[in-house]
Amino acid sequence: MSIGREKVRRLVSSYAQKWIHLALLGAFIKWVFYGSLIGLLAGTASALFLTALEWATQQQTQYSWLLLFLPLGGALTGFCYQNYGKNSSKGNNLILEQISEGQESIPFRMAPFVLFSTVLTHLFGGSAGREGTAVQMGGSFAELIGKIFRVDAFDRKLLLMCGISSGFGSVFGTPLAGTIFGMEVVAIGVVEYQALLPCFVASVVGNLVTLAWGIHHVHYAMGPVPAISAPVLLEVVLASIIFGLTSILFSELTHWLKKLYTTLFPNVVIKSFVGGVLLVLLTYGIGTRDYSGLSIPLLQRAFVEPVAPWAFFLKTVFTSLTLGAGYQGGEVTPLFVIGGTLGNALAGPLHLPLTFLASLGLVAVFCGATNTPIACFVLGIEMFGSQGSVYLFLACVISYLFSAHTGIYQSQRIGISKS
Amino acid sequence: MSIGREKVRRLVSSYAQKWIHLALLGAFIKWVFYGSLIGLLAGTASALFLTALEWATQQQTQYSWLLLFLPLGGALTGFCYQNYGKNSSKGNNLILEQISEGQESIPFRMAPFVLFSTVLTHLFGGSAGREGTAVQMGGSFAELIGKIFRVDAFDRKLLLMCGISSGFGSVFGTPLAGTIFGMEVVAIGVVEYQALLPCFVASVVGNLVTLAWGIHHVHYAMGPVPAISAPVLLEVVLASIIFGLTSILFSELTHWLKKLYTTLFPNVVIKSFVGGVLLVLLTYGIGTRDYSGLSIPLLQRAFVEPVAPWAFFLKTVFTSLTLGAGYQGGEVTPLFVIGGTLGNALAGPLHLPLTFLASLGLVAVFCGATNTPIACFVLGIEMFGSQGSVYLFLACVISYLFSAHTGIYQSQRIGISKS
Using CB atoms and an 8 Å cut-off, which of residues 149-208 of chain A contact chain B? Predict the structure, then answer.
């Protein structure tokens, strides 16, 4: 380092030092305020959503004929989005695009639209998840707050990241994973820390608010963790490569079906109707409701006893068909189910404990599909505790690597190439 | 997104997609190889270092007159570095600079030099740590491997990050914190994931190798964790601001003393000798060896019973004086002790459990001084388990924020400003 450069560095640094603690305190107060506000709204919305979802799932389980209304539900959703949804139908991608480039506005109606139509999807037995809904509600609240307080473009991005974190953290009851997810999901391979405090506040407050509304989350346990040894590490690497490739199958199949449906049926109402009919036929064809809705009972079984080795594939097909046909809902819970059942199926051939591999699969397939390895690792810690932490990290790194640049979010930027 | 741009994006992506799995597999095999090699060397070096350190600490405890030789030990170290050390005396900063700019070479002799002189520091009762030594050994091995295999400039950076991760992970027995530390420490506020797999392999292998050599690490427990509530969160925020400001005190005092010593005594041999005399007088003056060496017994006490409220300050002064006078050794274990004792002292006034706040302090002061919040959070998880994870994260975020752009590594780049 030359002397001139060093001098300049010192000057800049001494000037910045004088004021930095005031600036930091200001930023701290500002983001505790904004983050809490978003957390309050997103956490409340998540509580409402989870309650509605539980009701819808109960109805679907109790009155199995509701499935017959799936095509109509889809047509209704498509009609509403087309005529009144503005650009809401872009979903999570709209929010990610606004964080990266920021030329469009996120309409407030996105929140009620996605909430209502996700509940419809589940009520009528479509196969979908929750995170998309929670993230879109969080994003739409964040945009509203940004408009009310007239924040600048930079703060708007941070607010939107808060919205993602808050939605994710509150809907899954994993505030730390939510924090990092909001920061990591924007671009593959790079994380910038400006959003660290904002996302953390939004996610923690969101989760506390959801809990305060009386919501309980389903718990899973990893069970006994094998001692670290070369064979076990190799087996986990092998399993994680499969988890990563499976995440590609899910992402690409969903994207491909979306394109195919749109080409075949340019009218979204007809598209969703036909997609619904196909799902109804498929559900009656296989004769089980295991793959409808969130598939939480299937996931719970995958943690205690062997499930069908093709379960992961059927869940992939059901969810891709549901989302491909334009139904609303998230991808993350289906990804949990795909990973959990795949891990369950691999446990036998790899001679590893079933619960252990189901846990790794749950986290790793999700990781491959979202390209958020640290968030997924932290999710694993929050769900299963820390005793399997090295394996969790390993599974996330390998799945992240082998999912290449595919993923469920087409508007995710490639910040740094993986290869 | 305009159509032209979208088209280009798709073309690039379809081309890249074809080959990416081959490229990923190639990168995977390459970095498992390089990472394991560095882990093997750095893990073995850490085992040797920790064994030597234990011996030195035992000698110092048994023969307290060894303290009288501290000035001579310092003079010897200074003499060796000046005449035979090349640029080794730049320490951790040399490695960080090579990762960021890369114009100098890291001499292999850095490893034996720092190992030998750190053991001397501890044998004669100086106050210092371990991470600097482990990181420098790891970095010097990484450079050697880079030279042998004639890697390009980009891979050399990744190798050096592996060296940091491997040294850190193996010397503290925290492979995941080591992984992230190597990625996070290079620049404040930005993490890039190219090094994720390389650092992970190097750190995990390094830790396994150190354990295989029969090394045991001291364990600490967080004890009962208070339920999350607004008052507790506020108290933890307050404590964490104090942790962050204390990290500034440590970093700035050490830098200032380094400058002052160098101005007063341009001859490094005299500098270290005089610094040693001062330390001897100070040690006899306060009449305890609590602040000499690693101060592990003091840290262990801080986890079970109240310690003197000024302990954190004395440890700060002792370590700053030791490192400021040019003695070798790391900063991290002293930072653990400073944080642990400060947390211990704050527990009373803040009405929080002593062990709980000592744990948070240990992690948070370290976090403020190194600007590596995720690594510190993960370190906390690896040391204390996951039950206090939200508090750990909170403490890391706040301390990171309030330490501003200060830190113990002067060559750490500011990637993204905190304010």
Answer: 175-176, 179-180, 188-194, 196-197, 200, 204, 208
Q: Does B192 contact A381 at a Cβ distance shorter than 8 Å?
A: no
Q: What six digits make up the tokens of B159?
A: 């190798």
Nearest to B397 among A197, A394, A419 (CB): A197
Set of chain B residues whose Cβ sits within 8 Å of the Cβ of A204: 390, 394
Q: Considering CB atoms only, which of A16, A175, A389 is closest to B405?
A: A16
**Left (φ > 0), alpha (ψ -120 to 50) or beta: where does B189 sit?**
left
Contacts of B267 (CB under 8 A, 6+ apart): none
The ranges assigned to domains in chain B are 3-212, 230-414
Nearest Cα to Cα of residue A174 among A395, A319, A372, A14: A372
pLDDT higher than 70, residue B13 = no
Domain A7-212 class in CATH: mainly alpha
Query: Does residue A1 carry a pLDDT above 50?
Result: no
Chain A environment of B27 (Cβ under 8 Å): 401, 418-419
Pairing verdict, β B190-192 and A187-188: unpaired
Mutate to test the interface with A, among B24, B192, B237 (most CBs of A within 10 A): B24
Tell me the pLDDT band of B17, cut-offs 50, 70 and 90: low
User: Do the first three CATH levels of A7-212 and A230-414 match, i.e. the same topology?
Assistant: yes
Select from 1.10.3080.10, 3.40.50.1000, 3.40.50.300, 3.20.20.380 the CATH code of B3-212. 1.10.3080.10
User: Which of B97, B228, B390, B411 best probes binding to A when mutated, by most A CB atoms within 10 angstroms?
Assistant: B390
Task: Give buried/exposed letters for A372-406 (b at 16+ CB in 10 A, else e).
Answer: bbbbbbbbbbbbbbbebbbbbbbbbbbbbbbbbbb
Contact B416 A390 (CB under 8 A): no
Check: CATH 1.10.10.10 for A230-414? no
Check residue B257 and give its pLDDT: 96
Q: What digits encode the pLDDT tens for the residues A253-278?
A: 999 999 999 999 999 999 999 999 99
Q: What is the 3-state secondary structure (H, E, C) of chain B?
A: CCHHHHHHHHHHHHHHHHHHHHHHHHHHHHHHHHHHHHHHHHHHHHHHHHHHHHHHHHHHHHCHHHHHHHHHHHHHHHHHHHHHCHHHHHCHHHHHHHHHCCCCCCCCCHHHHHHHHHHHHHHCCCECECHHHHHHHHHHHHHHHHHHCCCCHHHHHHHHHHHHHHHHHHHHCCHHHHHHHHHHCCEECEEEHHHHHHHHHHHHHHHHHHHHCCCCCCCCCCCCCCCCCHHHHHHHHHHHHHHHHHHHHHHHHHHHHHHHHHHHCCCHHHHHHHHHHHHHHHHHHHCCCCCCECCHHHHHHHCCCCCCCCHHHHHHHHHHHHHHCCCCCECHHHHHHHHHHHHHHHHHHHCCCHHHHHHHHHHHHHHHHHCCHHHHHHHHHHHHCCCCHHHHHHHHHHHHHHCCCCCCCCCCEECCCCC
Residues of A in contact with B406 (CB under 8 A): 17
User: What residues contact residue B107 under an 8 Å CB cut-off, 6+ apart?
Assistant: B85, B86, B87, B88, B140
Pick the residue of A393, A413, A417 with the most B CBs within 10 A to test the interface with B by mutation: A393
CB pairs under 8 A between A and B: 139
* ipTM (interface pTM): 0.93
User: Percentage of residues in chain B with pLDDT exceeding 70?
Assistant: 96
Dihedral sign for Cα A416, B3, B8, B12, please: positive
- Chain B contacts in chain A segment 363-402 (CB below 8 A): 373-374, 377, 381-382, 385-387, 389-390, 393-394, 397-398, 400-402
